[in-house]
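Input chain follows. Return structure tokens only.
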Amino acid sequence: MPVPTLSVILITKNESASIDACLASVAFADEWIVVDSASTDDTCERARAFGATVLSTNDWPGFGAQKQRALDRASGRWVLAIDADERVTPELAASIRRAVAAEASVGPGAYELSRLSSFCGRWIRHGDWHPDRVLRLFRRDRGRFSADRVHEHVIAEGAVGRLDGELLHLTMPTLDDALAKMNRYSSEGAAQALAAGKRGGVAAALAHAAWAFVRCYGLRRGFLDGAAGFTVAAYIADGTFWRYRKMAELARSLPIDVGPASPLQ
């Protein structure tokens, strides 16, 4: 049996409303690997009906480790990593097919894609969210995922190219979705930052949040997206503030370091 040329990998949890359209946008692939985190809807059944291989897990090791699980199951020479709320446009699909059809010695072993995100139904073309280059296509033997619990990324060996076309990111369709995601990500980000030796607090939270807003809305011209641009800048600043506040809260809950343990303890 020939080795698949392209494997698509993604992780899911309760993505019944998105999984069909996501997989349909990458129907040109040879293999689809879905690692599901204990969905309570019919995400797994829908993925299997499409033809995907589904692995169900009950634990949550973080985004990086979960995506590495999917990568470990892939068998294609090339791997495309996407999320359930992302869609590959026809132009991007054509670029991907051309890249994986080339001999390994001809082009790069990894490619960045241009991602265009929406916020509450509005496409965001400025600020921190655009241009947004994400490394998602890579030779399986030349890439792996970082171990980050949140904001994970692909670590690829060798040259990295760029593909034409856009990856559409249909994130946070409502403000309730946005606020729920902010809460999850700020908690994961706080735990990750604390483990890396960083510390938070009110002063740090205010300073970093203010800088995040100025950077997104002013320096990166988020104001060109109108009211949506202001909302996104405020959203990013708010998430930054709560990440640093949660870091301080987590730090207070840690045991006090009293030095090396006594042999008598």
